[in-house]
Design goal:
Number of strands: 0
Mean pLDDT: 79
Low-confidence stretches: none
Number of helices: 6
Strand content: under 5%
Helix content: 55-70%
Shape: elongated
Order of helices and strands: HHHHHH
Protein name: Alpha3-fucosyltransferase
Distance between the termini: 54 Å
GO molecular function, one term: glycosyltransferase activity
Largest sheet: none
Structural class: mainly alpha
């Protein structure tokens, strides 16, 4: 990493290319573009919430019908790690994302408990 930073310091063209996402609002990282296009729920919190709500509703309906499909989604799908700073690679407890993560995790766990407690 330090070698790359030293190259950026010494090479203005490389540094400008590195900043193109900020200066020209252009993303040229192909892996990032593919990730962005293949998983829309990661960039749209409302879509993510709707998908989770749909999962919960489907699960409740299936339990009421006593017809359960094979277990595909489980609680581990909602156990995301805490957000960390890209600069320090540490959790910053004053960051709004960390607060949102805590609240979302609490809500998801409560909904999960409610759905699981309705099993017969």
């Amino acid at each position: 990493m330090s070698e790359y930073l030293n190259r950026l310091i010494k090479d203005d063209d490389l540094y400008n290319l590195y900043l193109i996402h900020k200066t020209d609002k252009e993303i040229n990282n192909q892996r990032l573009i593919e990730e962005y296009n293949s998983k829309p729920w990661q960039r749209d919190h409302i879509l993510a919430a709707n998908k989770f709500e749909c999962f919960v509703c489907r699960r409740v309906h299936e339990m009421r019908q006593k017809v359960l499909p094979p277990q595909i989604i489980n609680k581990s799908h909602y156990n995301c790690p805490k957000p960390i700073s890209a600069l320090t690679l540490q959790v910053n407890p004053t960051n709004d994302w960390v607060y949102s993560w805590h609240r979302a995790k609490e809500r998801a766990e409560e909904i999960y408990r409610r759905v699981e407690n309705n099993k017969n």
